[in-house]
Design brief:
By secondary structure, this protein is mostly helical. 79% of the residues lie in helices and 0% in strands. It starts with a helix and ends with a helix.
């Protein structure tokens, strides 16, 4: 019985240290992911209009067409309204911005999943004999080690 009490105390110290360290890393990651996503979204909203035609240009072309029709000019509407095509640099920049936003959100989802994993690893509220608690704790720790939770969390950013 003394063995299991001592084991429980040492395992509890180890587990608290592990979860506090990893939870702290995940909290910082979530804050930076949120800030980066907000800034990235702002850039996307600024560059998004470059991917569509300017409405005032289209209005001016239509007015020009009306004036020419009034003068009985024989130009067709296709002569006045050139097809719109976005600048290749604008397309590239928006692709990169959306890719970085996707990566940031993916890291945030991964961090939340890792926090849930750490929450399930916590032994708060466990009842029963110390020996059974120790076996359950060891099974959870083996799962954390088998799935390389620490490496996954370090890979997230």
């Amino acid at each position: 019985s003394d063995f299991w009490k001592r084991y429980d105390r040492l395992a509890d110290i180890h587990d608290k240290k592990l979860t506090m360290n990893l939870n702290g890393n995940l909290d910082v990651l979530l804050i930076f992911a949120a800030l980066f996503s907000a800034i990235n979204t702002t850039f996307i909203s600024i560059t998004m209009p470059n991917l569509s035609p300017n409405p005032s240009d289209e209005t001016n072309n239509l007015l020009r067409l009306l004036v020419m029709r009034a003068d009985n000019n024989t130009l067709t509407p296709t002569d006045l309204l050139p097809p719109f095509s976005a600048d290749s640099n604008s397309i590239l920049v928006n692709c990169l911005l959306y890719a970085s936003l996707s990566c940031s959100l993916l890291a945030a989802v991964g961090a939340m999943m890792a926090k849930e994993w750490l929450q399930s690893f916590d032994r708060t509220g466990q009842t029963g004999p110390l020996e059974e608690q120790a076996l359950l704790r060891q099974r959870k720790l083996n799962g954390v080690q088998d799935w390389h939770l620490e490496a996954v969390i370090k890979f997230l950013p």
